[in-house]
Design brief:
heterodimer, A: 4 helices, 81% helix, 0% strand, B: alpha+beta, 68% helix, rod-shaped
Chain lengths: 108, 544
């Protein structure tokens, strides 16, 4: 897949008439779960370029739907990250409470 | 053993009064002063002027052991009272101080847990954490109220009230922060931390105060325990010393006079009567000593009597025996051979001395029989006038021979008496015989009878004009072997006649005594009770 991305990026320069197709496939590969270096930001960027740079392309509707999905995924990832942060904070609170209680017992 | 009330008590009180520790003085004084009120010292007081105050051995033991019991009882009461105080202190430490510490710890722990819920809510805005926070509130408020109620010091109550106010502020602050949405005021954490640390500080202070109070109470209970131990040790030691001292004194008060009695008994057994035993001792021993003295006195009298008896007996028995021996020797040797009138005289002497010997032996045997309770009396309504007349007739020749006038004058109508005529005749014969013996020539012996109306008796008076009897001997003459004058040349006799007479008269329920003045003669009087018939006729009205 890494090679495919490389080939598509090369074709963007050598075959400008197939740029929309190349960008669409690049976006699809970056969003694929099978790709070890999955990157939703790069995938979104590729799909947005199809919509923005090739408005009449046959890949535009697909690219619009795909960019919407990728945006949703990115939003949920952000929320998950936020939640994980809060959980860590709550854990810290619990540890702090346990520590304080222990300290109180030791003082007594 | 010459201590008395104060002197006896001071050795025991001195260590108490000199003790520097006042906590010891008070209880010990309380324990010991009852002793001062008890008559213990007087129980052992040996001073002679307090003889009447002396207690018997039994009472001494009772008083002494009562004193020891009072001492131990006081010690026991003191111990019980102090144990009650210790119990109260420990109960206070357990029920107040321990609970204050526990509640203060619970409040501090609960507040920490509540702050955890509060923080987690502010992080997550999860309603569950808010509910947790709210659920903790009533529990903490209840505990703070308990703390306020249970605290036994004003400081503790004030600190509990401060915790309550701080917690209220914390709740209000949190409610504001919760309502403010995600934007918690910047001042919140610092303000909250200040309140929470103030609550924790107050809880710690209360717990420390209660802990210090508990330690103080424990220390106080330890002091009381030590004081009790010391007091018990001192009191028990004192009681032991007292027991030993009392045992020593009582034993000595018994042993010392008994030792003296034992020594005196040994002396008495050797025949050394000496002076009466004078010992200072408890009444029981004193009575024993008095009885012993009485016994010694009686033994001494008996000893003297024995000496007198032997002396009299040797005189009264040996004199006739010597005369008989001499006369019979002369007859055997034929000193008066061919002189029948002289031989007849010697035979007369032998006969007379034999008669005297028989009379002496008979009297001794008679008195012995009487003293042994073997004498028989045949009581009947006896006519004293007839008895006296008979006796006077019997003794008239002797009186005539000695040229003594023997006068008898019955006084009117003399009633019959209850008597053994033979025995009373013997008494009258003895009295008249004695009177004739001691009355010089041309003297007079008179017999007189009188009725004593008040005593319902008849009194017989035998009066002589002899040498008389010294006043101090008027009673002694009725004792066995007692003679007023034992000098040579005085009238001979066994010294038993008057003793027998007294015994006979006393056996009749009468009395006998003598009245005399030396040089002016003597009068022997005896009384005999009227017979039953005489008494009845005296009471009955005269018949028509």
């Amino acid at each position: 897949m890494r090679r495919a991305i490389k080939e598509y990026r090369g074709a963007l320069k050598t075959e400008p008439g197939y740029a929309d197709e190349c960008l669409f496939h690049i976006g699809a590969i970056y969003a694929s779960a099978k790709y070890p270096e999955r990157d939703f930001h790069k995938s979104l960027d590729a799909f947005q370029r199809v919509v923005r740079e090739h408005p009449r392309s046959s890949y535009r509707p697909e690219s619009e739907r795909a960019s919407g999905l990728v945006r949703e995924i990115l939003s949920r990832e952000r929320k998950l990250k936020d939640l994980r942060k809060k959980i860590e904070q709550i854990k810290d609170v619990d540890l702090d409470v346990v520590e304080k209680r222990k300290k109180l017992l030791q003082e007594q | 053993m010459d201590f008395r009330f104060n002197a006896c008590l001071m050795p025991f009180m001195a260590p108490v009064l000199q003790a520097s520790d006042l906590s010891v003085i008070k209880p010990l004084a309380l324990c010991l002063w009852p002793l001062a009120l008890c008559p213990l010292p007087l129980a052992f007081c040996p001073l002679k002027r307090n003889e009447e105050l002396k207690l018997s051995i039994f009472k001494r033991l009772i008083v002494s052991y009562l004193a020891i019991t009072v001492l131990i009882l006081c010690s026991g009461i003191y111990t019980v009272m102090n144990l009650g105080e210790i119990n109260r202190i420990i109960r206070g430490a357990n029920s107040v101080d321990a609970q204050v510490i526990r509640i203060a710890e619970e409040i501090a722990q609960s507040v920490i847990i509540q702050t955890g819920s509060e923080r987690k809510y502010l992080i997550s805005r999860d309603r569950a954490f808010y509910n947790n926070f709210s659920e903790m509130n009533p529990y903490i408020v209840r505990k703070i109220t308990e703390l306020e109620v249970i605290s036994d010091t004003e400081e503790g109550k004030a600190q509990a009230a401060e915790i309550s106010a701080l917690h209220e502020r914390y709740r209000t602050l949190f409610e504001k922060a919760a309502l403010s949405g995600s934007a918690v005021p910047k001042s919140y954490p610092a303000e909250k931390e200040k309140i929470i640390s103030a609550i924790e500080k107050n809880c710690r202070r209360i717990a420390k105060g209660a802990d210090a109070a508990r330690s103080e109470k424990m220390k106080k209970s330890e002091e009381i325990s030590y004081r009790i131990s010391r007091t018990i040790l001192f009191t028990e030691s004192f009681a032991v010393v007292l027991v030993v001292l009392i045992s020593f004194l009582i034993t000595r008060s018994i042993n010392s006079p008994i030792r003296l009695l034992r020594e005196k008994t040994k002396l008495t057994a050797r025949g050394e009567f000496g002076s009466p035993l004078a010992i200072s001792s408890p009444p029981e021993i004193k009575e024993l000593a008095d009885s012993f003295n009485l016994m010694c006195e009686r033994l001494r009298e008996l000893d003297q009597m024995k000496v007198d008896f032997i002396s009299h007996l040797s005189h009264e028995l040996r004199t006739p025996l010597t005369a008989i021996k001499e006369a019979s020797s002369m007859l055997t040797e034929g000193v008066f051979a061919g002189l029948p009138e002289k031989q007849a005289e010697l035979f007369g002497i032998i006969n007379e001395e034999c008669e005297r010997l028989i009379s002496s032996v008979s009297r001794i045997l008679e008195l012995s029989r009487m003293e042994a309770g073997m004498a028989d009396f045949a009581f009947e309504d006896a006519d004293l006038v007839a008895i006296i007349r008979k006796t006077v007739a019997k003794l008239s020749p002797i009186a005539d021979r000695k040229h003594i006038r023997l006068a008898y004058s019955p006084d009117g109508d003399i009633p019959c008496v209850s008597a053994d005529p033979d025995k009373i005749g013997q008494v009258i014969e003895n009295l008249i015989g004695n009177a004739l013996k001691f009355t010089p020539k041309e003297g007079e012996v008179s017999i007189r009878l009188e009725r004593n109306g008040t005593a319902n008796s008849v009194e017989v008076f035998v009066t002589d004009t002899g040498c008389g009897i010294p006043r101090e001997s008027l009673e002694e003459i009725f004792e066995k072997f007692k003679r007023v004058d034992d000098r040579k040349g005085t009238v001979r006799g066994t010294g038993l006649g008057l003793s027998i007479a007294k015994y006979i008269i006393n056996a009749h329920g009468g009395n006998i005594w003598a009245e005399s003045e030396p040089g002016r003669g003597s009068t022997f009087i005896f009384s005999l009770p009227l017979s039953r018939s005489s008494l009845q006729s005296a009471v009955a009205p005269p018949s028509a």
